[in-house]
């Protein structure tokens, strides 16, 4: 692994190359993102290189100061105390980086200049150059890292699966707040759900030092949790415990588990990290349990009108139990947004609920992401990007935040950025929607290899969902797209025919079918027919908004029939917006 990671915006690629060459000349190993292998996901390589680098050199410029990726990389480097900053155009640094020393290289006259000496001195304090014939730098101790395998549901009731999954996810979230500990994302850990993997193989595959496994048994008002921390190299137990408690003690129990793991790993827990772990957002165990259930169903169930209305009732019951539970409010907002944009449900699409969540918790990243979506829909693009950047700073490892970020960038045809976020979202959740959008993004980027790889990742997730519900129109729409990208037109058309019988009123599904017919199946007539149905059943104009810029329709964008469909849909939406005389 390289000693130094260089972070920069595209406009300063030449300066980044010059910095890299100068540092290599001093004996350092240097890495920048023009060296990503074609078979590796961008986000994975970036995270890996950031973790192993001894110093992160951030090249600030006007573009870099606006770049969410440069700022995200700089924030991680700052948190890990390995940030070295230099400015190449005198741009104002964003907060909080303007409070840290930054070398001025606007007039970099050579390697003897004061600015460059400042950079080299800062790097020397963090990483020793590996000069041929010189003393090799001491090998750094491997960073402690952990994979939390999904806890087994031992309740004897499959309906309690959401609770054991929720406990596992909360432990992952808690441990992720410990700066000295690397934690594998939920999706990678949950890939082992329902299996009995060899722990040493899990550790080797994921590159972690430890693995946590356990079980949850919930019966009435009692809960039993077992947990075992296993050394990934030896396969031996480093620590194990069992707890039998009243369900009312679940929050204290989760804190106890997380802190016991940290103690077993001999990791220092900072006071702010301890406070963050102990903050559950509510004192109501019943409200917490309801939101676990609602969020699990929202992620896994077919989003029917009746199902979404049920989820809103669950969230509202949780709010009635604890009106100050911000996560309950943002859960209600997400469901209301889906209800409005899919079925044209009454109301504001969750805007007020999201605003209430932010009043209760201004640092709730998911609520900021929802607000960014509302602003983007309203045409307030700059405000949406600012809100989105705030959400990413607050929680760069959130599935919801990355998924919204990818969607906003995709809708605005910023496909490079969309791909990065959908890559991250696909790693953070085991649903099919993020890999669906990822393959659509790579198709738009004319990268067929990565498009097929994303399709190959999405299809098993779709098939798993269809095993539970054969009429899940959203899953069928994604499955058809994946089959088309994978070059299986016969199966794709069979799925379309079956889906139209099973879910005849699903406009979102029809829209996705039209995308596949246009882009991959070369069927302009079929695409026009299904797009027409999707635009005719478009409650708030979402399908129209997407169709205007969706690259999947580029093959038929000049077709007079496509133009007519767009014009007619715009007229209908304008008529809806015009108040009666």
Describe this protein's structure.
The chain has 581 residues and is of the alpha/beta class. The protein is 57% helix and 10% strand. The model is unreliable at 131-142 (pLDDT under 50).
The largest β sheet comes out as:
6 strands, mixed
Percent in helix:
55-70%
Number of separate helices = 26
- Classify the secondary structure makeup into a structural class: alpha/beta
What spatial form do the alpha-carbon principal axes imply? globular
Compact overview of the structure:
With 581 residues, this protein is of the alpha/beta class.
How are the SSEs ordered, and which strands pair?
Elements: E1 4-7, H1 13-25, E2 30-31, H2 42-52, E3 55-60, H3 62-66, H4 68-79, E4 83-87, E5 102-104, H5 114-124, E6 145-148, E7 152-153, H6 161-176, E8 182-183, H7 186-190, H8 199-206, E9 210-219, E10 222-231, E11 237-246, H9 250-264, H10 271-278, H11 285-300, H12 305-321, H13 326-343, H14 351-360, H15 365-377, H16 381-394, H17 399-411, H18 415-428, H19 433-444, H20 448-468, H21 473-485, H22 489-502, H23 507-519, H24 524-536, H25 542-549, H26 560-577
Parallel strand pairs: 1-2, 1-3, 3-4, 4-5, 6-8, 6-9, 7-9
Antiparallel strand pairs: 9-10, 10-11
Helix pairs in contact: 6-9, 11-12, 11-13, 12-13, 13-14, 14-15, 15-16, 15-17, 17-18, 18-19, 19-20, 19-21, 20-21, 21-22, 21-23, 23-24, 24-26
